[in-house]
Amino acid sequence: MGVTEQGLLERDKDTMTLNMGPQHPSTHGVFRVILEMDGEIVRSAEPDIGFLHTGIEKNAENKRYVHCIPMTDRLDYLSPPQNNLAFCLTTEKLLGVKELPARADYLRVMMCELGRIGSHLVWLGTHALDIGAMTVFLYTWREREMILDLNEIISGVRMMTSYIRIGGVAQDATPEWLDGVRKFVDYFPAKVDEYESLLTNNPIWLDRTRGIGTLTKDEAILWSMSGPILRAAGLDWDWRKKKPYSRYDEFKFDVPTQDHGDIYDRYLVRVEEMRQSREIVKQALDHLPDGPYKIEDNKISLPPRDTLHTSMEALIHHFKLVSDGVKVPKGEAYVPTEGPRGEVGFHIVSDGSNTPYRVKMRAPSFMGIPGMCQMMEGAFISDVVAIIGSVDIVMGEVDR
Amino acid sequence: MTNEEIREQINAIFESAIKHSEVTEHGDLVVHVAVDQFLMLMAYLKQNRDYDFDYLSQITGVDYLEMDPDREFRFDVVYELYSMSKDHHIQIHVGLPEEEPTLPSVYHLWRGADFPERELYDMFGIIVMDHPNMKRLLMPEDWEGHPLLKDYPLTVEEVAFSHNPDHKSELIKTPEDMKVDPWA
Q1: Which residues from A are below 8 Å from B147, CB to CB?
Q2: What ipTM is given for this predicted complex?
Q3: Do A233 and A239 form a contact (C-beta atoms < 8 A)?
Q4: B58 to A399: CB separation less than 8 angstroms, yes or no
Q5: How far apart, in whole angstroms, are the C-alpha atoms of residue A347 and residue A350?
Q6: I need a labelling partner for B3 at 20 to 30 A (CA). Which of A42, A352, A382, B24 fits?
Q7: pLDDT along chain A (400 residues), means of 10
């Protein structure tokens, strides 16, 4: 940029470069985007990521399978059970585990769906806050607190639960937890209606979200978007229905879809997903089977603690599993699952040892960023934060 | 159309370029293709109406240096493709040699390949030709080396490699080689 004789700044191009992030509060983490502005209108948007790069994929190559599970929590940190599940399902596929006890699958499903509700609550609160509706944020945090308390009861940790393990779950559900879930399930539907009463017909909300950030069905497929963004664009695509894992085929639930693919439709889809998730948790709670909460193959999951004093075999298995870990047969596998943001899966290559040879996470936020920047082109600058909020990126899984 | 039928059709059309293809015991269709016919195969998979592989789920790079040092190709690049309308799923593997690992971009077929292809370069040094914006993605722009290579140590002390005397000694990097001084 030069300076004219009068001392004024001279523009050398028709657009202005505007930097947004990485510390901008509406980028939901450390996401930077370089905007080329023509007045109020975004002409092009270039994403810049990597500020939260933690090298989890490299680290996983030097850790045992069990030790990878706490690291997967920290990828998509808003719904840790989903990452645990994707990692464990892939490892179990490599191990040749055909079926888990029904109780293990039901507990997994309940944790994942509670995680999905918690994640959508954070999304709804922050998304509304970005657009200027502050009340919703306080309401959603109130309900999320209940889910975090439930996490603490069942796993001892509020956020990074590491509850789902290879071959089952970490420990059985306590009566206290089941009571808590029952209370939450009964309490929650009225609260979703409350959020909707604040937003769904609110003229300001409609103005800010309708017809903005539109991605048609074909565009969404072309840009590899997944989850609620595909469904908001009119595609009925959900891995829980397409390739049911963890007995999702035993639950009755709908996959909500909309037609326009704009921010408002994504909002409607996610709000309805919260209701459906609550429906799944309720069904799982009503029909929770008795029985073991992990497989009984002690080469894969730890033997019950009280058998260690009486059984030599159990003691050896316990020692081998703790000191050496699970040996996973040579091969590679990928199992897609449906996370709150879209398709979550791990591509694991095993060389037959107790550490994975290569772990690659298919992160829906990572795959969604180029499409998100595509949406920004032609939008107003004030819509950029709305678009980022509607894609619901989590930087932990973008940078990994 | 079943996976077995797709496998037979692809084998018949691309003959020698298909190094290996199978339907695994889990029912996944896996195809290993030579890099010279790779782009042809990908375009065919996307444009053939019977397959309609319109969705690229992800691209994974794998460095086989430690697992099998005598492997014909050091790298494998794995593409996961789905058909949204026909419910097909295919996994394409491309082998790349240690010297000059390059492969053509599929960005013009699936826009979603933008970030994963940049990540391939960033993490493995695999050069993706014809990508519109080929530069580092996660690591800083002036970073040297490609972190997910198996001969790139996790720390500057070569913990992961020094225990193995049979390992290629020239692969062991010292801090000087790395030009990274964590205490500077």
Answers
A1: 55, 58
A2: 0.85
A3: no
A4: no
A5: 10
A6: A352
A7: 70 80 79 88 89 88 89 89 92 89 92 92 91 88 91 90 89 90 92 90 89 88 90 89 88 90 91 92 91 86 86 90 88 90 91 90 90 89 89 87
CA distance B38 to B33: 6
Q: What is the C-alpha separation between B174 and A290, in angstroms, rounded?
A: 56
Q: Does B141 touch chain A (CB under 8 A)?
A: no
Candidates A58, A235, A345; nearest CB to B147: A58
Q: Which two tokens stand for residue A7?
A: 């001392």
A95: distance to nearest CA of chain B, Å? 12
Amino acid at B32: H
With H, G, I as helix, E, B as strand and everything else as coil, classify residue A115.
Answer: helix
**Chain A within 8 Å of B114 (Cβ-Cβ)?**
yes
Contacts of B157 (CB under 8 A, 6+ apart): none
Superfamily per CATH, domain B3-154: NADH:ubiquinone oxidoreductase Nqo5 subunit (3.30.460.80)
What residue type is A190 in one-letter code?
A
Q: What is the CA radius of gyration of chain B?
A: 19
Test A53 with B63 for CB contact under 8 angstroms.
no
Residue A349's contacts (CB-CB under 8 Å, 6 or more residues apart) are A331, A332, A356, A357, A358, A359, B62, B67
Pairing of strands B55-63, B75-82: antiparallel
Which residues have CB under 8 Å from B117's CB, separation 6+?
B59, B105, B106, B107, B128, B131, B134
